[in-house]
From TrEMBL, chains A, B:
Gene behind this protein: pfp
Transmembrane segments: none
EC number(s) recorded for this UniProt protein: 2.7.1.90
Name of the protein in question: Pyrophosphate--fructose 6-phosphate 1-phosphotransferase
Site (Important for catalytic activity and substrate specificity): D112
Binding-site list for substrate: T139, I140, D141, M185, G186, R187, E242
Length: 407, 407
């Protein structure tokens, strides 16, 4: 009997631990094929330093709490394996696998993590090593190809939509003209910013303008659009991706950087939201504010999508089942069978085709000269934000799974 | 039979509409004493422009949705009545009240709104006008005197504590030293920042340092405290009030303003969080990030405290009952009868004693040379964040009460 090891890598999401839960539970369930379920601490990097834990250390409450604990329970890393498969790190890693009798390795992560899965599975194949290596996707950015969507996106999208709704209510209390610019994560792909359209409850409701990095941003057109919107509405909410850029490819946030230095003489870095706030104040003279939806976008437990959390766990479990049945070098994918009713199945894709690619929002889902989002996106995204998992609560706050300090 | 009018004023909170609900429901319930329940649109200012609505226009779903809708359903204003009670605005206002046969006026708001209640009730008394005028408190800042706490604080405190928990999970995934500085609302009173202590789940858990405006902030001591914390912990969360200042009274955010200008030549305004981020980067050379908990602090429906929402409605209803029984010139207050079990009763206080005063966090609740919060605060605040109201949901998002555009 072989052992299983699982690791987490890259930025955290609200449901990456839900995928971890899926892997562990299915690992435990398959006790005829799998003896021990181990976890790498801080991913491949920590594992190379000899850091791992046996998952049987988790009591049942902690294991169940994983389903709704944001972050990365096992700790994460940003570690890129060398492109040269002859590098000494590969035999070292597989020797460690052999010492621990590892037959299955699962890596939960985004693009870079799939690169790791690709390299390790190719190395194993080239050296006839029977360790089955699988990728479990996660990223709030929803930018992995060959999958309908990624675990983590639904919860982040729900956070964005709900927050934009709330900020819209907050911004509309006074009877004076105002602009609120909400900056949303997404450097190259605008999926999360597009989700702000879900906040719109009626015609002409906020957000009135939505800008993604998939379309060029023009400052003058933006100001003209605001003036147009003011004709029918006093309090305007504008949603922008952090990565919006003009037609020459210059990021809007770069325009801000040209000016100031901080109190320590370093170049002052601000986001595009802050820059646009200053632009609007300077040119339109109205009350203006920018809000940066910060890390809570990717770590909010209270705005988790239950659909997302369940699918994340399902992806983990499906990876284990597939590996046991002989698969390796694959990433678990989501295949949508239907929108209404929403039906999703897990599939498998060759991880080599996925890593280092990027899926952006289709241009036909961006409308009105790049200022709005089409119904097709709404139909796509709405099923992904449904339901709210029940969080274990204590003293008015959620109870999370915390890893005990290592000895 | 007389009519009732209610208005909202000042910044929005998560539960100001819950107080509005309380006033309207109790107004409807007392149909033997009260004929019509009206609402001022955009407070006193809108009312002076002839803008109001009859609350019977609200269908039952909308009325019930008010209980969990953040913002200010009736719209708000920032309008200070003149100190001179001989000003022409007073007879104008009371003439409008007379035309509408108003016998009861309720103003839901903070310090400035209580100033309005004080002036109008003094004018009415001086001129023997039988309009009963009552203040219903609301402010996330919790800075009104003569009340145990204010509606709005519990929900904002819950948002702060939950967000700090989540950011702590997010910040702890990598195995490298990092500092995350969370800037929390509160210019003069540190109540909300103090609530970040509720995020701490075990000894040495984050946040490791908490700074309120009630204590002087020293930059060198802060850096030394961080170095000390790094001895036992890699990922440090620090919570600061936006209004922290040094011993000379200089706001920490002012240190940032001295340096940069924005791309339009205007002085660059950043918060103290951003300044401290740059300070830590410059001096300690570790990974550092600042997060500004933005307007969501005061408008999050998903992190409403049920206790807060219920108490807010109770305050509104109690105000109506009291006014009908003859009270005027009072603010509804909260009187805590016991911590464990938590028992709270509504009371009444002379609004003239309350307006233009400010309640700060008692110095004995600030410990360890101004870097931490005492157990007494935890005992005080914990009952206020309990419970989560059930939000009406549709398509994965909360359903809110929206006011129809005026004709």
């Amino acid at each position: 009997m072989k052992n299983l090891i699982v690791g987490q890598s890259g930025g955290p999401t609200a449901v990456i631990n839900s995928s971890l839960y899926g892997v562990i539970r299915e690992g435990f369930n398959r006790s005829e094929e799998i003896e021990h379920v181990y976890g790498m601490i801080n991913g491949i990097q920590g594992f190379l330093d000899g850091r791992f834990m046996d998952m049987k250390e988790l009591d049942n409450d902690t294991l169940e709490a994983l389903r709704t604990t944001p972050g990365a329970y096992l700790g994460s890393c940003r570690f890129k394996l060398p492109d040269d498969l002859n590098d000494a790190i590969y035999p070292l890693l597989f020797q460690k696998f052999e010492e621990m009798n590892i037959g299955y390795f699962f890596y939960i992560g985004g693009n870079d993590s799939m690169d790791t899965v690709s390299k390790l599975s190719r190395y194993a194949a080239a050296h006839n090593i029977d360790v089955r290596i699988m990728g479990i996707p996660k990223t709030i950015d929803n930018d992995l190809i060959l999958t309908d969507h990624t675990p983590g996106f639904g919860s982040a999208a729900k956070y964005v939509a709900a927050s934009v709704c709330e900020i819209g209510l907050d911004a509309s209390v006074y009877n004076t003209k105002s602009v609120t610019i909400i900056e949303i994560m997404g450097r190259h792909a605008g999926w999360l910013t597009a989700a702000s359209v879900l906040a719109r409850k009626f015609e002409q409701d906020n957000p009135v303008l939505i800008y993604l990095p998939e379309a060029d941003f023009d400052q003058e057109s933006f100001l003209a659009s605001l003036e147009e919107c003011f004709k029918t509405k006093n309090n305007l909410i504008v949603c922008v991706s952090e990565g919006i850029h003009d037609k020459d490819g210059t990021f809007i946030c770069e325009y801000a950087a040209s000016a100031g230095v901080d109190a320590f003489g370093h170049k002052m870095l601000t986001g595009c939201g802050k820059y646009l706030e200053n632009l609007v104040r300077d040119r339109l003279g109205v009350k203006v504010r920018s809000v940066e939806l910060n890390v809570n976008q990717r770590c909010s437990a209270f705005l988790q999508s239950e659909t997302d959390a369940l699918e994340a766990a399902q992806a983990g479990a499906f990876g284990v089942t597939s590996a046991i049945s002989g698969e390796t070098g694959k990433m678990v994918s989501f295949v949508r069978k239907s929108d209404k009713p929403y039906v999703m199945e897990c599939g498998l894709e060759d991880v080599n085709l996925i890593c280092n690619q990027e899926k952006t929002v289709p241009v036909e889902w961006i409308t009105k000269d790049g200022t709005d989002i089409a119904q097709a996106f709404i139909d796509y995204a709405l099923p992904l934000i449904q339901g709210s998992p029940k969080l274990p609560m204590k003293d008015g706050l959620a109870v999370y799974a915390y890893r005990k300090p290592e000895k």
